[in-house]
């Protein structure tokens, strides 16, 4: 059986072949000879601009090392602003500690580094402790930034980080969702205190709603019955209204704060823009009612990069504490920073919402695996309208849309 599995893994048709192995049980943890095999990936060997991206066929395949590991053949990946930032070295100080605490003594041990945080693909192997998945399962996941990314043929994650892909989506469509979904859950649920049961009477403002996190968050909140107001450019109004936004404020013409001040106050604000947004937006929250301002744009990683781990963390902690203290004492409003967190169970819930037609993928652009640098360039131009996706596996039968196509596709359900 072991040799059959290896054959399946490396003949480029792992998805179909391993289907026949599904439910036959996962193998024991072992140091597999497949460690000697290599895979295709886009890597960086140093931080910098788009020129540092390098395609190679010689990256060691990340095999099963721990009992709860799940090895996945990647069909599609997507890009996030974090990938562009990480390519330039953003967050390296803190992320390297997560990757390997001893890396403090060994600079550049993270290279060759594989970027790409989202994946949709097929399980090809599991550790002995994996109970939830089996080879052949179609899955999706958002990869923590301290792990090797999805711009590669194979990725190995823990089973907690992985979830069954929605049946109604192609891999290209599915790859557009996990990282923004886990980020939105972390921000809106874990930090903002919203959930399916308590959202129906809540008024939520989302700034920067036309990008990856925003287009997902609108749909999640509408699925939970919240009233959603958003800010975006005028030319994104059709997109966000189509996703369910109740009120849309164009931030490119006139004073956005003035337009929002005439509205009823909000219970939660999700800030995807940062900068001076909090200066005018916090006053839009209902005072003394447990309202929360949740921003995804914090100085934590920039601080640790520029000041070092200790000073950077202390400085960020002090900033957060001061702002939180000032807002709670002056207006009874909670001020919080939110961060992406891996969360397979949250993706399970998203998967159900997608298959129920409540959440649609928003794919703005897609690129073949040969054009990863072009995909980065697209992202760097800004003005995202949903997500940029990379088709990793050429033999992916589920991919239904054309390569390198650009233009927002809000895909409706196929079943
Ligand atoms: N803390 C974390 O763990 C975490 C995780 C994920 C994302 N983030 C951060 O959260 C932010 C949003 O992420 P994303 O993936 O959604 O980014 P994105 O896909 O690049 O979307 C950003 C959107 O904001 C719009 N925008 C820019 N300036 C705006 C303004 N002043 N008012 C309203 N809209 C504006 C952009 O379109 P136009 O320029 O055309 O208006 C774009 O559609 C990014 O800063 C990202 O780095 C943080």
Automatic annotation (TrEMBL):
Gene Ontology molecular functions: nucleotide binding; oxidoreductase activity; zinc ion binding
Localization per Swiss-Prot or TrEMBL: Mitochondrion matrix; Mitochondrion outer membrane
Tree of life domain: Eukaryota
SMART domains: PKS_ER
All residue ranges annotated as the Enoyl reductase (ER) domain in the record: 48-390
Listed Pfam families: ADH_N (PF08240), ADH_zinc_N_2 (PF13602)
A single Gene Ontology CC term: mitochondrial outer membrane
Any GO BP annotation: nervous system development
The entry's keywords: Membrane, Mitochondrion, Mitochondrion outer membrane, NADP, Neurogenesis, Nucleotide-binding, Oxidoreductase, Transit peptide, Ubiquinone biosynthesis
Reaction catalysis annotation: 3-demethylubiquinone-10 + NADPH + 2 H(+) = 3-demethylubiquinol-10 + NADP(+); 3-demethylubiquinone-10 + NADH + 2 H(+) = 3-demethylubiquinol-10 + NAD(+); a 3-demethylubiquinone + NADPH + 2 H(+) = a 3-demethylubiquinol + NADP(+); a 3-demethylubiquinone + NADH + 2 H(+) = a 3-demethylubiquinol + NAD(+)
InterPro entries, alphabetized: ADH-like_N (IPR013154), ER (IPR020843), GroES-like_sf (IPR011032), NAD(P)-bd_dom_sf (IPR036291), Quin_OxRdtase/zeta-crystal_CS (IPR002364), RTN4IP1 (IPR037397), YIM1/Zinc_Alcohol_DH_Fams (IPR050700)
Family to which this protein belongs: Belongs to the zinc-containing alcohol dehydrogenase family. Quinone oxidoreductase subfamily.
Protein name: NAD(P)H oxidoreductase RTN4IP1, mitochondrial
Organism of provenance: Crenichthys baileyi (White River springfish)
Organism taxonomic ancestry: Eukaryota, Metazoa, Chordata, Craniata, Vertebrata
Gene behind this protein: RTN4IP1_2
